[in-house]
Batch of 4 targets.
Target 1
Amino acid sequence: MPFPPPDSPRAPPPVPPRPREDPPPVQFLKGVGPARGRLLGALGIRTPVQLLHHYPRTHEDRRRATEIADLKEGGTAVVRGKVARIVFQRIPGRGPRSLVRVVVADDTGSFEAEWWNQPYRRDQFHEGDEVVMSGKVVRRRGLRMTSPETEILEREGEAREADDGGESWGRIVPIYPLTKGLRQREVRRAVLEALSGHLAGVKDPLPPGLLAGADLAPLPESLAAIHFPGDFEALERARRRLKFDELFFLQAAMAIRRRDLVREERGFAYRLTPELDRRIRRRFPFAFTAAQDRVVKDLLADFAAPHPMNRLLQGDVGSGKTAVALYAMLVAVANRRQAALLAPTEILAEQHFEGFRRALSGSRVRIGLLGGGMPRRERRALLAASRKGEVDLLVATHAVLEGDVAFADLGVAVVDEQQRFGVNQRRVFREKGLRPDLLYLTATPIPRTLALTLHGDLDASVLDERPPGRRPVRTVAVDRKGEAGAYEIVRRECAGGRQAFFVCPLVEESEDLDLRAAEEESRRLAERVFPDLRVGLLHGRMKSAAKRKAMADFRAGRTHILVSTVVVEVGVDVPNASVLAVLHAERYGLSQLHQLRGRIGRGPHPSTCLLFAAPGSGEARRRIDALLETDDGFEIARRDLEIRGPGEFFGTRQSGLPDLRMPEALLDAPLLDRARREAFALVERDPDLSSPEDRPLREALLERFGDRIGLTRV
């Protein structure tokens, strides 16, 4: 059943009227008011132009109504008919519960619409009302819709003007992200008002030449079409333009950040010789892989460049990132400068310190460890030595970011597991030296499109090869029936001289609850499951000395099983551990499970990852299946992106950039490549965006990013 084409004066005009200057707050749009203005403010919308940039999350085609006889379970449909019956029920039980059912009929049949706990709906409808409803069709004692969007088009015996102005029916209709108390129809009407009164005042920030070269629609046209498109072709053209803007702005911000780094001159020259390379490599008890050699070439080229290094090193768990980082730091030390490594946990910092100390045994390199729980006297002595240049290589936790930590001449700064540090923390670390070379490490592989977006201001290297001796890990899903068999695997491995990790989940955002879970599990395993084995405990609330002892006992083989929270997720290296058991694995993210699995398979023995899980169906099941099917970190990341979607996967807060309005743009690799090329070329041509043609872009970037990318310093 076709709807008549919308002819309401509220439809967006094809040619916008004259722009208003100085647009008022969004609450002054017709029909909004203070109350709805506050609700829109909760969504970050304070002006009409911001409302125009509040994009729909999807659209529904409501140009035609479906006859009731043609309704299909699982689909979304628009139905037009008459109200045949209204039924109100009070549901017995605790608290007031009710159900309103409305039977709607057309010439082909009838169906029910139902509303739970909305008793006012009983008085909203009269028998004989002509209504239009849109919602998902489900089958439960016949076909029905639950809480459909509804409009009463005609009421018998009343000269009734339809309440709807044409924004919700008879067209392709936008569906917006909402907040509690705000309805779709209210947002649509506000958007129409903003389009009518403020669209003409929107400046297009992209230069005309770029628009023409990339075949992009003008911004005002795209904003109108993203909300109320005439057809799906117009919608797709608008989406392409607005996705390009998202990606282009991010890449322009990255290009400006990079411009600042490239402008920094090194002020000194490294001595880089084949003999220095040989001397450093002799410190490692293994030959570098081809991938590590390739990354070392990248590092040496950075050291020879006239500006400081700013490089991201991506590598799967166990790919040898730490060895490459030590190589970079030793280049600085050999050139009489200092180096420092920032680690996210004390356990990882201590592990790096011990590993570096073994590698540098017999050398003249002076190495120090700075942690949060150091005795005051030791800390003062270490900081004094660092300021005097008497420490060559400092391994540290967040404690290095404190104001009293200083270096005589910091040459190379390494951030391990960089995604665990915010942009401000990384900036503070960088400012500990005068233009130090920066190397960021991450064992969380991310797809290329995300890497270019989140780290577009960095040079990137990838370690895509496992060192010799790294064995693939067998992964097994364990349900309740399989627990006894899983425990037998642990017992057999421990009897053979190997060891096992048991990891407990963070059940809630409560460290106390997490702590009790770990302690309770360690007692259960020690007393009821493995009374003949020694069980240790490790969690983040333990004192530093207790954590060191727990790890030392496990590394030395004095405990067979270590029960832990996710404090062991990154970097912990115990080659003799051949079993990892993750309890309630369905509660973890896919990348986190992959990181945990990387704690084993580091020694000469076959290793097994046991995922104790009750995933049921949906996302949890897909995460578990992905772990069972592959151990490739980049494939895991791709699956994680598919499962969670780019909006959740891609958090820009760590980069200091705002969230994306259209996160799905990250899935469009060709568009990202085009946006990156155009943005970097434009900033290279006009580094300060000062030409008249580029000033609108400069203003847009300042509005979007503020002082976070350095434009205000120009």
Target 2
Amino acid sequence: MLRQPIVTTLGHVDHGKTTILDSLRNTKVASREHGGITQHVGASEIPLEVIEEVCGNFLRKNKLALTLPGLLLIDTPGHEVFANLRRRGGSIADIAILVIDATKGVENQTIEAIEILKEYKTPFVIAFNKIDAISGWIPQRGKSFTDSMAVQRQDVLASLDERIYVLLGELYKYGLSAERFDRVSDFTKQILIIPVSAKTREGLQELLAYIAGLAQKYLEKTLEKHEQAEGKASILEIREERGLGMTIDAILYEGKIEIGDEIVFPTLAGAAKSKVKAIFRPKPLDEMRDPREKFSPVQQVSAAAGIKISCEDAGNALAGGELLVVRSKEAETKAVEAIEAETKQIMFESQKEGILLFADALGSLEAITKLLSNAKIAVRSAKVGSPTKRDALEAASVRAKSQYLGAILCFNSPVEADVQAMAKENGVKIFEEKIIYNLTAGYKAWVEEQKAAEKKEAFASLATPAKIVILKDHCFRMNKPCIVGVEVLAGSLKSGATLLSGKGEKIGVVKAIQADKESVGHAKKGQRVAVSIDGPTFGRQVVDGMTLYSDVPKDDVAQLEGKYRAALSESELELLKELKKIKGIQTY
């Protein structure tokens, strides 16, 4: 016997992952998501009879017989950091759908999704979505792609093929061989590209049929049903249900769970042990986060399935963690050790300077910490829950040493008014978001704004470093003042700056700067401008190709390297070092 395969969707934001699943289960989940982006993982079961109903004509034409009990569809937010539906050592997905917008092609999170799939060695097909948006496409609602293709103009099909060929080239860069599904010669070596439209439901017959068919043919060993094995599940959410209290929504990916089983799962206090009081399953085609009908109570469930569990201490379970059935003392000991080790990896506290992070679930916490790590943003602590006044004071202590890291990031974690007030009083910035991309992007934008403001303040009152070169054949006046064309190689050249030679000798003072025949106060790296220099004579103190430096007094250097250091770029800091060397480090 085979269990139903776990199918996950990945791809770039707005490429249509949730909308495709909406079309398959005829729901409207996508329209209810914050910003149209899925933030937590959902699960929907599609029974075999529904697959046969949707794909009947295609299955008959291609003489395909399905024996799987159905498909369990998991909807992920599509970013690489959301590979948090996991078991220890890998993802719980058996096969995946990589959704790519036919009008946009491969984008950043598409690449990240590809890397995830390669890392976990997860087989996948590509849903080349939004073919209805191709100019000239004549929609054939609910038809297979094969039937829809038959009524399209040749120029429209040529446009689709051109987009597919571009995609093939992009995939080849990542070591992947792919082809449109009806041109594939070897299903074990080539990735199937299935053109679809989530909006018109075109191509969904092929998508469902090939997902089920490939899983059935090539994942038979993986999908073997071990009904007596101890159940293993990935926790999705903790929800309160009327008459039940707090419950655990989870994906059972291995073995069996039944009423009365002892289970172990992670909490903030460590691994917790409890007993299953009741198990519920959503009706087929209903999405677990927002079912249109009530859950059905069951005595036991075998993998793979989306389930709701009622048990003691359910309210303290951490979303994104593992829930393990234990039927012996030895199994319990191993489960507790495994869960506590996993939780410590995510919920860490560091003594280093860094931001304070709070999220509503382990999976979200894991996702954001990985994002911040990739962006080289230090994290002092990462916790499930909301910040307290003590956390606001802790962030303030960080801010005293590193102002950009003295911040608190909260994802789906409400901040109490007294905490907000204390943070504001101590100059601590709090970021609250329900969309992870906005949370990290908002923080980075704030840092850039702070740095720009600091730089503006520093550059208004302090001498700034600049490195320029005199352009060949660009002398406009020999002296009194000497006017030449220059290119700024590094830093920012300001009017009034004292210029030094590469040996530290004073050459003259910049009296004025012109860019495109207009006077400007300064010139940035990369700009070519005309400068008038009081003091030198061209051909004597200055010549074509000569490199000059703007002088920075010792006190200004101290401030730039101290108070305003974070506002300077790496190249500007390097230029300061070079200038100090030219003037003689002992003078500083």
Target 3
Amino acid sequence: MAKMSVTLAIFLVACTVASGLAAKQIVIDSETKEVQRPAKPELPYNDHLGRSSPQGTVLGFIKSATQGNYELALQYLDTKKTDISAQKLIIALKSVLDRGFQGESAIVSNRPEGDLDDNLPPSTERVGVVKTPSGSFDILLERVQRGKDPPIWLFSAETLNQALKINKALGLTDIDAYLPKFLTNTWFLWFPLRDWFAIPLFLLLSFGLATLVTRLLNLILLLLARRILRVPVDQYVVRLTGPIRILFFALAVWLISFLSRSVLTSLFWSYVASTLTVVGLTWLSMRLIDITFNLKQRQLAVTSSNKIPILQLAAKLSKALAVTIGGFVIFYIAGINITAALTGLGIGGIAIAFASQKTLENLFGGIMILSDQPVRVGDFCRVGDTMGTVEDIGLRSTRLRTLDRTIVSVPNGQLAVMSPENFTLRDKIWFHHTLHLRYETTADHLRYILAEIRRMLYEHPKVESPSARIRLIGFGSSSLDLEIFAYVLETRYEIFLEIQEDLLLRLMDIIEASGSGFALPSQMTHVTKDNGLDAAKSQEAMATVRRWREKGELPFPDFPPETISEIDNKIKYPPPGSALRDKR
């Protein structure tokens, strides 16, 4: 039922498009028979009887003749006949137009200038060809201008002279005489009610035929794909079912148009079939683009996942291009002047560009992000005050999954100028802390602490030795300030936290073992018995510094290179007793 609804919707759109108009003119003078091509476009003109285009003349004549309004129908003929002879001529011409065509698909131009590529003079338009035992006859229209009135299309005098002979040779009769008058005289959208009763039946039969043929074709495609590609392609073949069904539906409409002996029916179904064909091809192109890019995305997911966002953007732009081309082709079928439309689009594009600066800014920002790749899908980054993992890079915005598990959409235009900070691309992580020691710590005591911490940094296997340093950087308001600077050889933040914890605990062990302690930043006055520093440990630390000084081994401003080389990477990490030691 859903498939039937989609097909019916597309069918109704095609029927609507089948009645477009155009806006360009070529004039022929009825007296001199000379073509007058204007140097510049004429002002648009719409004849009140619809005779400003070949299609309007044909439809107007058939409608008025079917309703028995012979006086009005006579206005579409290039003849001087009146009364009974004119009525006979109208009936004969209508009969030929209704049932005289065989093996012809009528396409009558709805442009004021007609079809200029039919190998006929610009003032002449062929409606169709009627085949009789004595030969084939062209049904022609001629564009004439009487006096200063605008040019109009009329059935040519040559065609009218042949109409009675053709009607007699074919022995045609008008079956409308046997139908109720309300079915033939009541018109809706250029068709009498009798034709609209046939449309649902035709729609059901054509849809059923298209469905059967599509299923058979899908089965053949599945067998061929499995044998040739040797990969599961069922889902891709199923996605092609809809557009293929529309194309077969269009083929059935073309067949009806070709077999129809009525110029009105053939004309209508020819335009419907053309529109359905364009819609089906556009839809099929979009599905093929999806399939192609999906297969390529699977390949890149294994070899180069960072190119997937660019591939997704290319898929979206390709589908937009396919829809745009299909839309322009449908406009052309409907008789809209594409050149004028493109010109208007260019002028209107300037206004649209001013009105949608932010949209265009975001579009180009997205293209820049996908090409330069400051962030990629899956990267953890900071954008302004927001930190999160990139989940999608679209044409308008980039979506971040924050640490609170919420989604933040950042416009691409802003993201391109905000210098996003990408944490995933780090090759190592900065270990940077400031230690605040008590002021009771003496200079030699402090030298001992600096040396031991420096030794520990060099010995630790997860710390980059060339970057490691610890320095006395100043005297704080309540402490001696030591700055630690080093890079930890790890890119995953959760692992870095483990290593940082180990380093901080080792720092606490060194300071505790030296007999010093951390300063309290509080400004409160404590009345208490202060145990002060550990005298024994302080004396031992200062004695060690004196020995270094006496032996000329004082490690300031740093350890000698040979000592650094000797002690580098000596600490066992994880430490002994760690639950992870035997697992790494």
Target 4
Amino acid sequence: MDDDRSSRMHARVTYRSDRWYLEDCDSLNGTQVNSQPAQQTVLEAGDLIRIGDRLILYVDDAAGQGPTDVQTSLFRATTHGGKHLADTGSLIEESVSESISRVVRDSAVLCRLANLLHQHTDSEVLIKSAIDALVDGVDADAVSIWLVAADGRLRCAGRWGQDHDEHLLASLAVEKDKAILVEDPSDSGNSSVVDSPAHVGTALGAPIPGPKSCRGAIECHRLTQRGPFSRSDLDFAVVVAHQTGLTLENLEHRERLELANAELHRRLAAQTRLIGSSPAMQTVLDQIARVGPASSTVLILGDSGTGKELVARSIHDLSRNIAGPYVTVNCAAFSESLLESELFGHEVGAFTGADRRHIGQFERAHRGTIFLDEVGEMSMACQAKVLRVLEGHPFERLGGDDTINVDVRVIAATHRDLPELIAQRQFREDLYYRLRVIDIHTPSLRDRGDDVIELASLFVEVFRKQMGRGPSRLSKEAIEAIRNYNWPGNVRELKNAVERAIVMGQDEEVQVNDLGLPNQLEGDGTGPQLTSLKDAERRHIQYVLKRCKGNKSQACRILEIGRATLYSKLNG
């Protein structure tokens, strides 16, 4: 068969005990009968066999009578049917086409329809294209397409020609899930469909397939005096119905993917937003806006938990490679040998346990961005190979000879002091300058002022929405505690503290105790903090409030100050 999805020996049709049997020969893509997987089955008149993208109709025509309800084969012009003759037991091949001219005309119309269906993404345009093809193909006086609505009833999606509001034939085609050809449309409501000996009629219906059941039907009518429809007309309508059904299914699938993609982008944007209005953060955002559209290598420096990966992602989203892949590699998470394999890949047998080829992350990031996090943890040998890639040289997979060229933008990040590592001969100076074409310093949370409150409020909203419970806002005491805490773990520590507060909190507001912050005023063996008297006073007030469980009156009595003084010192 002329189909790429059919196996060399796909299926076997045999005749024994006066019956035809179909048996799948362990084909790669399987054989279906009436849209159901079939390993071995007895064929009955009207069965539709699918092999790859080809549909084959089984017709028991030994007695000279055709089936009442017929299905047809897609690409009928290139398909041949066979008739089993009981007296000889042979299979005589016949051409299914009625005439060469009909085949040429139908092929041209269907080809044009296929192009139109793949060009448009509007369902109304698709329905109109299908109707136009039917008008050209079957020369009907009226054509209508009916789709099953949410309530299970048929609704007209489009029509052409004489007004015809009834859809008895379409309903019957959907109910029986078979193509129908009738001599008199008035008889289409009977339990059996009238079929003349010549297999002609004045109306036809063809079901539109869906993923699980019929999604609708095509109905065509012709005036009696203009002559009946032929079996070839019905075949043509069935092909149009199949094309329409597949296109509608693809359109719905595309719409679902677009909605899911938009939702994922929305969630990703919410998770990767860089929040902050402090001067230090505004400087970073301005640098990202300038660096993003360029193709320069970027080195991001800053303490752990300051959002270096968010900066890298934001640069990629503004770059020319936004449509390409974004690959992240944490260099600190791999040993020396495994990191080299992770970055550049390996061939089978490159080392013990390498039982299959592994594509490296540089290769996966082709025409995109690769983010090398904690690049300061990279071994000297691996640094040399990364340097060659940055200089535009090709590389080979471990254990391989094939050279690989990639077009990748490199963004690196580290919390280590690279000049100090260079002095200690633990980092290559030439690689440092290759990476540091543009450097961005992410500020620590303690240097960002009230950004910490803005971030904490955002985390409260995010975690409460995820868990469906917990406090909905920060209390004044929690805000002061957050503002006064040093946050050595930066944004990561703040995020964890707020998540804990949403899980453990029992009030409408987040309380200081919910955050689980270490109390710097309680003796922990580290001695007094080197801080200003004003900060020490404020922290002591916070400590007293915490011990009083937020009771300001009791705290004022202990501190021997008035409420106005308390608020003044907290907000000063």
